[in-house]
Design goal:
alpha/beta; Rossmann fold; five-stranded parallel beta sheet; 6 helices; Rossmann-like_a/b/a_fold; Universal stress protein; UspA
């Protein structure tokens, strides 16, 4: 299988694991010279909070999720590393429940691989992935790489 498009989907909990996520993206995308789609997925309430925090003027601007993602610090940090690696990329933003939105985005960009992050689980939490990771692993139209963070969460 030739990799042409790698989707890195991040959400509100991924800032702490951005180094691990970007390492996974570079490991997969660089050898194949694949295009990386950096995507931030917002729930409706997260999106409204970010619009306020980033001081978008909703009255004067026609605000698109892609524009909001471009100004989000997690995407800015990831973009800088992608540029340092001379990889082609695009930035996407989408609104919806995290798991289904990632699956829909993977389909719409015709992703050959999806990379998502998650928490390292405590022994009692290892029986199940988080609901977002589980949804993506089970429903994505392509292989998924799951990147664990280094902290525990029950």
């Amino acid at each position: 299988m030739t990799l042409e498009t790698v989707l890195l989907a991040v959400g509100p909990g991924d800032a702490d694991r951005s180094d691990e996520l970007i390492d996974a993206v570079v490991d997969v995308a660089a050898p194949a010279d694949a295009t990386v789609v950096l995507a931030h997925v917002f729930t409706k309430s997260e999106y409204d909070d970010v619009l306020s925090r980033l001081e978008f003027d909703r009255e004067a601007e026609d605000v698109e999720p892609d524009d909001v993602a471009r100004r989000h610090q997690t995407i800015i940090d990831l973009r800088e590393t992608i540029e340092d690696q001379d990889l082609e990329y695009e930035i996407r933003g989408t609104i919806g429940e995290h798991g289904p939105a990632i699956v829909d985005l993977a389909t719409s960009v015709d992703a050959d691989r999806v990379i998502v992050g998650g928490r390292r689980r405590s022994p009692t939490g290892k029986a199940v992935f988080g609901s977002t990771a589980q949804e993506v692993l089970l429903s994505a139209p392509c292989p998924v790489t799951f990147v664990r963070g280094d902290y525990f969460d029950d």
